Fold this sequence. Notes:
The chain is of the alpha+beta class. The protein has one domain: Cathepsin B, Chain A (Alpha-Beta Complex). It is 25% helix and 33% strand. The chain has ten helices and 16 strands. Strands 5, 8, 11, 12, 13, 14, 15 and 16 form an eight-stranded mixed beta sheet that branches. Strand 6 and strand 7 form a beta hairpin. Helix 1 crosses helix 5 and helix 3 packs antiparallel against helix 4. The longest helix is centred in the N-terminal third of the chain and has 15 residues.
Amino acid sequence: MSGPVVNGDNGQENTVHLPSGIVNSAGSCDLNAVVQLLYHLPSFREAVCSMGAIDQEPIVSSLRDVFTQLNSNVAEVSAKKLMGVLSSKNGGTWVQHDLHELMQHIFEELSAACERTSQVNFVKNIFCGELSYTTRALGHEEYLATHSEQFSSIELLVKGKNTIFESLDQLQEPQRIESVSLQLTPEAAPTLHTVERIQRFERMPHVLIVHPNRADFCMETMEIVTLDNKWTFPMQLDLQPYISPQTDDEKESDKRLGALYVLRSVGVHQGPAQSGHYFVLVHHQGNWCCIDDTRVFSISAECAMNVSYGGEPHRFGGGLARRACLLVYVNADVQEEELKHVEPPSTVS
Length: 349
């Protein structure tokens, strides 16, 4: 761990042990940020570090290696081994990724490595929930179809929105779709109809990954740009208004997680859409800290939020525009279970 920092609050001193950073290797700030977001989810970290039978799979062993370094007194933590594994399909050349894209890629690689093992569902068990979709045929109210789909993250549009709740409202607005082929009754031939589709949360994940989509296409420059409007989100996120209601039978037979989530960490992007820099803000040992490659320091909760919201360039970091690009929330019902600290192996390979 990094050395302790003493914070004074109303005349009282509290020692905060800051986590370790990771060396930036050839523009690896995106990988460093994703590794930190995952490392600070102890349940995920423990699962990766206790995979025994498949610990020689490249993605598992390399991720375990950097997790072990982060937990040790290593002077310079390196993610080069993991970088090599993830860039092997690209000729060994590292190309900067969007944090959400990179995290999903790591999940896919881990899931593939865990196939035909007892750990096959470990990513799903932590990050996956279900969305329910209800489809109605306009003008034919007797037709009602429902189905569920799994999700491992939620993408929310930021354009024209001021808060995460406005984006969630848009996500759940009825969508009208033209010329959908439906068989209204078992005996009828398929015909084209206009339908209205509504999506709601059906089953909540232990850890909720939120991807604020700030990308927009500029017609003047014909380029993808990053929107810098202020977009706020709370430390505690209540999703109850966005969850599909349960029947009495479901309430008795199905133990679902509640709707309240607590913010654990934030991935932050600085700069234009085509490039820029990534770092993370993490709630660590009851305090917030900024982890920017090897630079690690304490910040106030207010500062962490203001840096993440976007809008006017913040004095933090020299006045450069910064905004949240990934939010990690932990369900309050399983917060103690998910964040219970377990020491990773002390051996660094």
